[in-house]
Design goal:
Blueprint lengths: L1 H14 L23 H14 L3 E4 L5 H11 L2 E4 H12 L3 H15 L10 H4 L13 H33 L5 E6 L5 H9 L16 E8 L2 E7 L9 H6 L1 H8 L3 E7 L5 H14 L7 E6 L15 E2 L8 H12 L9
Parallel strand pairs: 1-2, 3-5, 3-6, 6-7, 7-8
Antiparallel strand pairs: 4-5
Helix pairs in contact: 1-4, 4-5, 5-7
The protein binds guanosine-5'-triphosphate and magnesium ion.
The site of magnesium ion has 4 residues, from helix 8.
Length: 341
């Protein structure tokens, strides 16, 4: 399990455009309050990182601000945790104004409690935003204040964007809405492209899609639905991101039908399915609005069969997609789930 989690962390590292130099694993009953890993392990990691000429040490678990600081002193290297890595990927990927605002907000929320003297470059970076500290105010306090101002500004921007979105949503009332949701890299965008003939970017990296897309697609000759493709889910998604992506996730929450896409070829599919199910549950989506789609059937030897009411497809070859459309139609028209095939 821990090994699989480290594998996923390595995928995240590569998705951020970084290279993995080495890995280390420690099992202990409880994390060390000061350094998370034990003192001996920390020395081991320091030596290994020096041998490997590493630039960065990344932890799969979330670290407290003081743990980061202590570890950086021991390693004499920058230390980040899983949340910071995910945030970094999101920063790299955000394209639209909405996504950029959401990501920056999440990042600043994450940074605020972590501000230390080392962050003094921040004021230069943000150049011109906010007011320089008054008399007797330390640099740190000034930075904090500036950060809070920027956060408020972003929150207001996001509210405006959300209002526009809401108006657009109202305009779509009366149209069937089908959202594609699921773990990152499950194949949502690939299936979205197939269902709508859109040209959304598909990549074998985590979080290829951040911006939600809407597009009409035909489910039978005289019937269309509006499909939406959005950001993927992941185990331990930083709560700052969940909060700032609220309006994007709303797109899923308000859909008439949610296609829960599962990469059935992944050795971790069960856990991924559970993680995504929990997110859908948190969004308040009842199970009768969810249709589970097992994707990447082309990669499985035995193929479809024996999985309750999930529909099997290959978004790449198109296998099973016509059956999927039939099932979408049935579900939109309120017919009971088809007996398992
Ligand atoms: N073999 C196979 N590969 C697939 C299938 N569907 C998607 N893929 C591949 O899986 C990878 C991820 O596909 P995407 O469509 O980008 O996945 P996504 O769920 O949109 O991912 P994020 O946007 O990152 O959350 C790409 O390399 C796709 O080519 C499939 O049915 N079979
Ligand atoms: Mg995608």
């Amino acid at each position: 399990m821990v090994d699989e989690h480290l594998e996923e962390l390595e995928e995240l590292v590569r998705s951020a455009g970084l290279e993995v130099a080495g890995r280390a694993l420690q099992r202990r009953k409880a994390p060390d309050a000061r350094t998370f890993i034990g003192r001996g392990k920390a020395a081991e990691v320091r030596d290994a990182a020096a041998d490997l000429d590493a630039d960065l040490v990344i932890f799969d678990d979330d670290l407290s601000p003081s743990q980061v600081k202590n570890l950086e002193e021991i390693f004499d290297l920058q230390v980040i945790d899983r949340s910071a890595l995910i945030l970094e990927i999101f920063v790299q990927r955000a394209r639209t104004r909405e996504a950029r605002t959401q990501v920056e907000l999440a990042q600043l929320d994450y940074m605020l409690p972590r501000l230390t003297r080392r962050w003094t470059h921040l004021s230069r970076q943000a150049g011109g935003i906010g007011v320089r500290g008054g008399e007797g105010e330390t640099q740190l306090e000034a930075d904090r204040r500036m950060l809070r101002q920027r956060i408020r500004h972003l929150e207001r921007d996001l509210e405006k964007i959300e209002r526009t979105r809401e108006v657009q949503r109202r305009g779509r009332r009366g149209v069937d809405r089908v959202a594609l949701a699921g773990y990152t890299n499950a194949g949502k965008s690939t299936l979205f492209n197939r269902l709508t003939r859109a040209g959304v970017r598909v990549e074998d990296r985590l979080f290829a899609t951040l911006d939600s897309r809407l597009r009409r697609g035909a489910i039978e000759p005289n019937r269309t639905a509006v499909f939406s493709d959005t950001v993927g889910f992941i185990r331990k998604l930083p709560h700052h991101l969940v909060a700032s992506f609220r309006s994007t996730l709303e797109e899923i929450a308000e859909a008439d039908l949610v296609l829960h896409i599962v990469d059935r070829s992944s050795p971790r599919w069960r856990e991924q399915e559970e993680v995504a199910e929990r997110v859908l549950q948190d969004l308040g989506i009842e199970s009768d609005r969810i249709l589970t789609v097992f994707n990447k059937s082309d990669l499985l030897e035995s193929g479809a069969g024996g999985n309750g009411h999930a529909v099997w497809v290959s978004a790449v070859t198109g296998e099973g997609v016509e059956e999927l459309k039939l099932e979408i139609l049935r579900r939109l028209d309120g017919e009971p789930a088809r007996a398992s095939a």
